[in-house]
Amino acid sequence: MERYFALLKILEIGSFTKAAEAMGYSQSAVSQMVQSLESELSLKLLYRSRNGIKLTPEGEALLPYIQRTVNHYNAMLEKTRELKGLNGGLIRIGTLSSVSSQWLPGLIKDFQTLYPKVHFLLHQGDYTTIPAWVRAGEIDFGFVNPDAESVRGLHTIFVTSGGHKAVLHPDHPLAAQPWVTLEQLAKETFLLLEEGCLSEPLEAFRTLGLEPRVELRMHDNFSICSMVEANVGVSILPELALRKMNFRIVQLPTVPPVIRRVSLVMKDPDILPIASRYFIEFFLKRADTLP
């Protein structure tokens, strides 16, 4: 298996020398591993160019099988740990900013009270990057909207649906209303939360044949709220993201409402690391109590 690990590490880092350092081997040892694998398969897997190390066409074709082999091997090791008890493990999660700020802190704290030797690694992304990380094996699972095109072919578990709120400066003329229509918002300078291949607000606008005047695109809810507080424009953000916000802004329901569905996404629940399976079960039992 070390030969497979070495090949993937070289591709990840882009250097034989740095891959060897990361794995605790000499460069010659790592080179011999790759040569041994190529000799066994009777195929050239890597070539070096001015732009670095790349897979040959044959290597490209075999890469998914190599990744799958490594994933199954890791799953076997995790199963072995499961049989011995959950005394360790790393849970790698792809998360949206609203989920990592509102749901995960308390859940991780409570889970680590039960399993103190389990550690977490969070990768904050969007509807495009999180499914890509799942496919590449860089994370175990993630949180996404299952309606995103990028999720096709992956396993999803529905968690909940949530609404959005329009956010405006308190002095904005629309801020005095009990609600605000999408037609009204489409005429304003709009600040868009960039979430990859799918935007629930943009989809809602386009369903009505509207195209908002998007002036700024940002990946961070807090940055958008700061811009709204400065009266740069208006926006529509997930209600979950607006919890515990201390900005001087007004939050209003939209007409029609803008809805976001949230699901867990993974490649195959049967080969997830045991620690991740434990956490998903723990999370789903607490899902009804989430804010």
Automatic annotation (TrEMBL):
Keywords: DNA-binding, Transcription, Transcription regulation. GO terms for molecular function: DNA binding; DNA-binding transcription factor activity. Coiled coil: none annotated. PROSITE patterns: HTH_LYSR (PS50931). GO terms for cellular component: cytosol. It holds the Pfam family LysR_substrate. Residues 1-56 form the HTH lysR-type domain. Belongs to the LysR transcriptional regulatory family. PANTHER family: HTH-TYPE TRANSCRIPTIONAL REGULATOR BSDA, HTH-TYPE TRANSCRIPTIONAL REGULATOR YBHD. This is LysR substrate-binding domain-containing protein. It comes from Intestinimonas massiliensis.
